[in-house]
Amino acid sequence: MVHIAVVGSGVGGLAAAIALQARGFDVDVYDQARTLSEIGAGVSLGANGMRVLDALGLGEKVRAVSSNLRRIQFHHWRTGEIFYEHPMGDWYEGRFGGPFLGIHRADFHQVLLSAYGGTPLLGRRCVAVRESADGVELTFADGTTAHADIVVGADGLRSVVRGPDEPVFSAMSCYRGLVPIGKVPGGDTFGLTFFLGPNRHLVAYPVRNGEYLNFVAYVPDPEWTLESWSARSEPAEAVAAFEGWTDVVTTMLANAEEVGRWALYDREPLSRWSTERVTLLGDAAHPMLPHAGQGTNQALEDVAALAAALTPPDRSLQQYEQIRKARTRQIQLGARANAACFQLPDGPATEARNERLKSLPDTVAWIHEYDIHAAI
């Protein structure tokens, strides 16, 4: 039996392990963390990612712990006025073939952990990968090693499996957190909700079946360079960063149970992801800024393509890369461009952007209607 080692037990790594086990592979998952704790906040899942979860038999379990985002709204930063709104919910599912969901990362991770037929091997920080004709040897920081026929690097932005190229700093950071939905004025009406303003923007949506709002508040900050899920800030600091904004925003930030602070990085698109026995997946392959809401969905598309490419008789990591590279590159670069579009000062440029939003469903259709299984 072919033995595959997955480095990283995040969403992409666990989903890959589940998909590869379903194809008959022997899979071990390694992670540097010593415990699997509830970190992060919300992620969004579109129809393109849900197609993969449905094919893995996980769709209903994910839906059960998610919030269906039934509308998209864009608000003016100061007045709070909605200047563009479009239905999602049934409309979105009818057009794109699946729901658009908000889910807490920890809830999602638990669904995947329960489906994975094993236990991630923790405290294994990979420090070296050595490929040879008969396999791949992983070396960990504690001095132990592991051997596999194939290695999948799902170890994130600063992937050891990927190698030493430097992340690209966006000179932007974000405040992330959860707030009880009843503590936000009008919070029970939120779907996928944007507040756009000069040099800043905030995105919020419900998670945990509408119990909480997840928010991500983006600010320019060339000094804050720490990229870490565990870095903490204070609600008051986030409120100060959005002084003068609508009370809905400042009240949301002030009532957060805790606030994380995260510097935003991506990397330049790779010309090559794979060797004969080693490949990359998710943020290790194509880390992207969050301004397209596609990081998790693209990792899930990777999972489906990888499992298919490794299935006999053809078994080719190069085939996986060929299916995925052009699409992820386009989304990576588009996410970079969106930040500037979301943070315009009031004036003609903002008015032109708001006019373009009228065609938003058609503009993003190529992302959300995509069916990775058909592409394979």
Structure in words:
This is FAD-dependent monooxygenase. GO terms for molecular function: monooxygenase activity. Keywords: FAD, Flavoprotein, Monooxygenase, Oxidoreductase. Residues 2-331 form the FAD-binding domain. It comes from Paractinoplanes lichenicola. The chain is an alpha+beta fold. The chain folds into 2 domains: 1-36 and 120-166 and 269-339, 3-Layer(bba) Sandwich (FAD/NAD(P)-binding domain), CATH 3.50.50; 48-103 and 168-266 and 344-376, D-Amino Acid Oxidase, Chain A, domain 2 (2-Layer Sandwich). It has 13 helices and 18 strands. It has helices at residues 11-22, 47-55, 59-64, 89-96, 105-115, 235-241, 247-254, 295-309, 317-342, 348-356, 360-363, 365-368, 372-375; strands at residues 3-7, 26-30, 42-45, 67-68, 71-76, 82-87, 101-104, 126-132, 135-140, 145-148, 150-153, 168-180, 192-197, 200-207, 212-220, 232-233, 259-266, 278-280. The chain has an 8-stranded mixed beta sheet with strand order 6-5-13-14-15-12-17-16, with helices on both faces. Strands 2-1-11-18 form a 4-stranded parallel beta sheet, covered by helices on one side. The protein has a 3-stranded antiparallel beta sheet with strand order 3-7-4. Helix 1 runs parallel beside helix 8, helix 2 packs across helix 8 (295-309) and helix 8 runs antiparallel to helix 9 (317-342). The mean pLDDT is 94.
